[in-house]
Every structure is written in structure tokens, then in C-alpha cells.
Design a protein that fits this description.
The chain is α+β, with helices and mostly antiparallel strands. The protein has 17 helices and 21 strands. β12 (about 405-415) and β13 (about 415-425) form a beta hairpin.
Length: about 600
Amino acid sequence: MYPEQYISDVFTYILNMSITGSYIILAVLFVRLLIKKAPKKISYLLWIAPFVRLVFPFAPRSFFSFFSLGIFNRDVYSSAVHEYVPLSYDYDFSPEFSTGITPAQNMIPSTFEAFTGSPEYSANPLQVILFVLACVWISGIFIMLTYAGVTFIKTKKSLSTATRLEGNIFESENITAPFVIGIFRPKIYLPYNLSEKEKEYIILHEKTHIKNLDHFSKVFAFLVLAVHWFNPLCYLAFTLMSRDMEMACDESVLKKNQGIRKDYSASLLSFASDRKLPSPSPLCFGESGVGKRIKNILSLKKPKAWVVAAGLTVLFVCTVAFISNPQGSTVVSGKVDTALDKAISQMILDEAGDSRPYFCKTEGHKIFGYSEKENEITVYGYMSYSTMNFMNGYLSSYNGSGAACPFVAVFSKADGNYTLIELSSPEDGKRYGDSIREMFPAEFKKKALSPEKYKDELQEQKFSQAKAVLKAEGIDCEIVSPPDTDVVLMENHDAQKKMDSTELFSTAYYPMFVGVVMYKQNGVYTVYERRADNDKGRYYFAAYENGSTEALAHAFDKNGNYIGREKITVKNFFNYEAPEKDTDLYYIFDESKMTTKAILA
């Protein structure tokens, strides 16, 4: 994966998490109104869910997920990762976008011309757009963190003259409001000229924050905000979470210290009337929302037991609902049973049918999952097949399906046996992405659009099968990947065309490259050879059984004219030596240089 693609992918994950988090933030805002009579600690803990959604791209499943509501598009939320913006687009030339909400989706197009690519383009337009946006996103994070870091350093510098009152409590003439600074060794800083009562209540309040680890929560929340800086709802969530945190701390202090409500409120009121500022840096933990807090304190009453119980129940249910995805459909991820796996293998081998002789057929497959309905089972995955033969002393694929091909196969099931009903693959070209979306469930779409991830695994499966066949035949031979090319362009291209068009041999058997191939036909290994004899100025085509010492070959001159049959000396296939690199009669076209050059096949 190229660095720019990795950056784009990370940004796409963040963008999708931000959209999911936005829906949860809106839901939390609504739930806060329903439980406003409950202790503020419950409202504060409700903010765990949206921040979890903003941090983790994956989520567990539950049957009462918030996203099971009918307004949400189940295709988006049935997968582990929500995709409003597609995560895979290399092979998706008309990427699909979603709002996640069905009514809203029906009002806008799912695809836009600006993002539509074509197979002949070197890059999908969406790749370019996402990379540019990713660079802007990274710049925004840098600005947010730089601002926090610079203000933190300035604050630390201004506190250099602070004097210790006791323990981790200090006073400074350079600040106008109390705050906590530090994570692992937090310190409380107070401005000068506070009354003893004010000091007492402020220290009590700040110690409660530290005891509750609120200084950790505030810094973590700011870092999440820095990552999602482009989302205005995240700023609202950060602000309201901070307010709920302060009110929850106030309630905790007053609960443990009965009879101080009046003086405690007066202490807060003095800050509000003096218009003192909050903490000077996002990484410092200071007072905020003083007016709202005073109002909450004055109206504070001991909640009834049923109100607390109801609030805790709402907190538990909402947290589980907000951080979980809906239960998946009948689609099951994982391995299929042995009998079905064998049926899949046979299906792929049948698909690899070739009219030409071959040494062995091999297949590889990767199963994403399956769904069952009555006596039918639908399987989703990748398949790859190769018809393999001997070339120049090696075993290699000469025909196959390519690296990996996504497929959907439907089998009937009876008495533990599986019979193929239908095999489908996506359309090529600009319809490829649309075909994937139509064929695959949402949770498998990304995998179906990422063939390169499974190429090596499928290749290894095919090579393992070929090794087993070689071992059974008692043949010692290396297995190699298919050559980059098997077509040779000679110095005289017209001569080559003339030779290739002759009716004296079939190109289905004679190799279209310098060297030899060997097929197994009716239990006999037949070798087909194409060679040059520079001394005689001849091109030869020959067919003979492996183990022969000589063969009667078709001979052509350098102009491609057929001369007749001539005897040539041959070797055992596995002792074959490829032509020298300086052979001047055989060339391959080099597209990068638009020239021809000699090759060693």
C-alpha cells in the first residue's frame, strides 16, 4: 500500500466514525433531557458512548442497538465498520455514499459524477479527493495540538513563581482562576487574594476532580476533539461533557459535605461576578459553566430512589445501545463445513476447464461467510484457479482466473451433499462496484473490493496442490509464478506472423516463447519446443516424447518461410537449458521503452 493510500484510508475511517459519533451525540442530547432530574453523574457518564464511537471503528453487536431503529439503513449498520464513505474504492468506479438514514438517503443521490472513475484511469477520482481532504485533516490536528502545546508551555512558564501552600496545592499571582495541571502528578493552582472559605471549597472541589480521574477524562476528550476537529457536534459534546463533569463534581462535594451549599454557591458566584477566565490551556483542567452550576446547586434536592434507579437503567441501556451495532442478518462469517468446502473446490476446478492438455488443475478460495435458507446455502468469497504445465524446466500456470475473483455461489443441500445451482461474479469495468454492492452483503463488500489482500493466500493454496501432484508423480521440479510474458517478438515481425499463421502446427501446443513446454497427454509427457539455431539461420518447432534424444522438427528460415522437416538433437525436459541472453533472433516488446530487446525466457 502506498503512503498516500494509507493516509486516505485512515482519514476515511475517521470520517465514518465521526458520522456515527454525530448520531450518538444527538441521541445523548435527547436522553439528557429525559433524565434531567437524575444525578448529573449519570448525564456525565452518558458521554462515554459517543467518545467510544469516535475512537473505535469496530463495535460489538446487540439485539437492541440504537442503529436497529427503522430510520437507519441496515446495509450500512449491519457491518462491523459503518461505511458512509466507501472504505474500498480502488476497483469501485462508481462509489456509493450513504447518510445512514433511510429517509435522508432517499432525498439525495447515492453516487455523484464527481467521484465516478473508469478502469482506464490511473487513479479513482475519489482517491485524489480523499487524499487532499486527508492532508487538510492532518493539518487541522497539527494546529489543534500545537495550540494546546504552546498554551500549556506558556502556562507552565507563568507558574514558575508559584508558591506551595501544602502538598500539591500552589498559589500564583499570574492566574485569575483555579485549575489543575498535570496528568500523573496533578497539581492544584489557586489565584491570590482568595478568602479562606473560597480556598476551602475550591480545594475540596479540585481534589474531588482528581479523585474521580476527571483530569484524565478531560485531556482524553480534547485529544478526541483534536482528531475530529472538523465536526461541529464534537465541540458541542466536549463543552456539554465538561459542564456535566463540573456539575457531577459539585453534587459529589455537597453530598459528602452537608450544610455548605450556601457558602459553596457564594464561592462560585464570586468567580462569575469577577468574570474570571477558565484555564488558559486545553491541557489544563479549570472551572467552566459557573452560572449553570450555581443554578443546579441551588435547585439540588436529594433524588428519590426510583429516579436514581431509572436513571441508572437508562444509562446502562443507552450505553449498550449506543456502542453496539445491530445483529447481523442470516449471513454467517467464518469457515464452511468440510463437505461444502469440497463442493466449492470442485466448482472452481470445473470452472477452470481447458480444452488443451495440462499437467494439473489447481484452485484457491477464501470464504467470507454464507447464508442459509431452507435447503439452499449461499456462499460469498474469492476464488482463483490455474491450469498448470511445465515451461522451461519449471511448473507454472499458463491459464487461469487471475489473482482473485469475487464470487457468490448458491448450492442446494440434501443429506449432507451440496449441488451447485448458480455461480455469479461481478461485471467488469465501471459496473464492477455496483455489481459488488448488489451481490454481497454489506459486511463483505469491502473484502470483495480488495482482491490484492488475498492474492498471496490463494496463490499458496494453488502451489500446495501442485506440489502434492508433483510428489505423487515422483517429479522433482520447481514451481514458479506465471512468467510476465510468454510472447516473443522476433527481429523480423513479419516473419514471426508468417510462421505463427502456418497450418503445420497449432499454437495451442507449440509455445509462443523461446524454450519448451511439456503436457501430459494420455499418460505420456509430450514436449513442444521452439528454438533458434543462429549458425544455420533457422527457427525450429518440434514435438516429441520426453526422454527422446532427437526429434523431427519443422524448420523455417529467418524470413519465416517454411523449409521442411529437419532432425534436431533434444534433451530430457528437466535438463533443458534456456537460450543465451545474447540470442539475436528472439525479442520481446518493451512497452516502457517502446523498443525491442533480447530476452532469456
